[in-house]
Structure formats: C-alpha cells, structure tokens
Amino acid sequence: MLQQRTIKTLTRSVGVGLHSGQRVELTLRPAAPDTGIVFRRIDLPEPVDIPVSAESVVDTRMASTIGARGAKVHTVEHLMSACAGLGLDNLYVDITAEEVPILDGSSASFVFLLQSAGVQLQNAPKRFMRIKRPVEVRQGEGQQLKWARLDPYHGYKLRFEIDFAHPAVDSTGQRAEFDLGSGNYARDIARARTFGFTKDVEMLRASGLALGGGLDNAIVMDDYKVLNSDGLRYDEEFARHKILDAMGDLYLIGHPLLAAYSAFRSGHALNNQLLRALLAQPDAWELVSFGSEREAPQGFARPVAAW
After folding, report:
1. Does the annotation count 268 as an active-site position?
2. Average pLDDT of the chain?
3. Active-site hit among 19, 74, 78, 268
4. Are 189 and 177 in contact (CB under 8 A)?
5. What does the pLDDT look like over 204-252, one tens digit per residue?
6. Alpha helices, DSSP H, located in the chain
7. Which of 30, 115, 206, 295 is placed for a possible disulfide with 6 were both Cys, Cβ 3.0 to 4.6 Å?
C-alpha cells in the first residue's frame, strides 16, 4: 500500500513572525498514523492543540490563521506547503508564540528542516481526497473578479495567474504552473518568497501587520523595481509563491488532494472558501487509498527528493 509519512526525529528552528515580529521557537515532532498535522501552543499556561482542518481557519487577512479553544497560530501556510510538497501526513508542530516564523519568506527552510529530520514511512494507508466533479468559488466582477477552482485529475497540479500592474512583475511572469507528478517541489516551488510593496508597508504596520518583514524574508518592491540586492530566485517567483501559498492553504483540508487547482487573483480567503465549498458538497469528493505504489499517481509514490 501507499503509506502515510511522518518524520524520523524531532527538529527545531528559531525565528520571528512576519506580521507579529515576535521571536518564536518551533519544534517539529513525529506523530502517529492518522494524527494529521497538529499545531500546539506550548507557551500557554495549558498547552492547546489545534489540529488543521478547513474549519480550523479563523482568519485569512494576509495569511492563514488557525485556532481552537481561544488559541491561534498565524501564518501556517508556508510550513503546510512544505508538508504538502514532501507528502507528510502526520506531524506535531510545537510553537512558543502565536505565529510560525517567517524564516526566509519561502518554504525552503521548512523543507530543509523536514528533510534533515528524515521521512518515516508508517504502517497505515495514505488517504487522499479525490475530486469527482468541478467545484468553483468566485468573487467580484470585472476588474475585481477573483476565482479558484478544483477539477478532477489523477494527480495534483496547480495553475495560478496573478494580476499586478507593476513593472517588476510584468517583466517576469504573471502566471505559473506546477505538477507534482513531473516537477520537484523543493526545486521548483519551495524557494519562492512572499512579496510586498513599500507603499503598503506603512498601512500594514499601522494595522499591526508586517512588523517582522524586511529584505531578508520577502521580495520588496518600490514603484519601479525589486529592491533586494540578490534579485529574484525564479523568473516567475511572484506567481510561484502564490502556488506555494495555495498548496499550504489547500493542505489545511487534512488530506492530500487528487485534483487540478486553477486560480485567478485568489488568496488565503478564497482558497479557504473553496475548501469549505468542497466539503459542503459530499458528492463532489471521496476519500481513497492505493493498495500499491503502481496504482498511485506519479509524484506521490516517489521517494522524497532532495535539492
């Protein structure tokens, strides 16, 4: 059978939250089969477990925030994206503050941490959520239109189109595609960083956001160009980061998807609305496992690729 995966040993990291600016310690620990991914606020008087699910998402302003019993964890999408890209099913995430550290603004550091800990196959079948018919959510009209969609597909692929009228974005690429069966997450997606504009920084910080952001953990642009001295890591780094985010947002449903995801100007809020719309239509999906690796879609059975 195609087996569930966790990590072999615990691994740790320290950083700051992108929005809170708080110092935070992160410990990733192995978890038993069928645990799922569980965030644990260990800094509270009584630790609180927050298992990931579409319904656990309580805020989608500038990031995906999950919560339970009054406790929250902000900006979970980059770590969740790394788990999705590496095929990890079960993991405990111990955290000492209310936000996952931003590290370098991508998921590359999380991929490194998880691969350093090693991947452990578990004696339980990996369960996929297979999309049986299209599900779509739309918002706005004309210039304000946004949408996200899931279609049936024997595998997992994502296509994202952004729409930023900015010279730096126009000169690289407004769209990107990634297929887990033919691509390599660590190489093709994980290094794409979050991005922002200097004109928005003052407004965000007045709202208590982006307090920990800077050139070392984000692509920053003025009205004309990228300000980072090292430039871009990919030609379409902006669109690829949106795929990175989408993979993390969608993995909050608690199972790897067998689907083709496509989106135009979507974000954390619309991605979560798409998951909730899917769950509200039980005839649109089913849970499946594979008795052998030969039956599984390409990319899921393959050993976890290094850099």
Report:
1. yes
2. 93
3. 268
4. no
5. 767 776 677 788 888 988 988 999 999 999 999 999 999 999 999 999 9
6. 77-86, 108-117, 167-170, 185-188, 198-206, 237-251, 268-279
7. 30
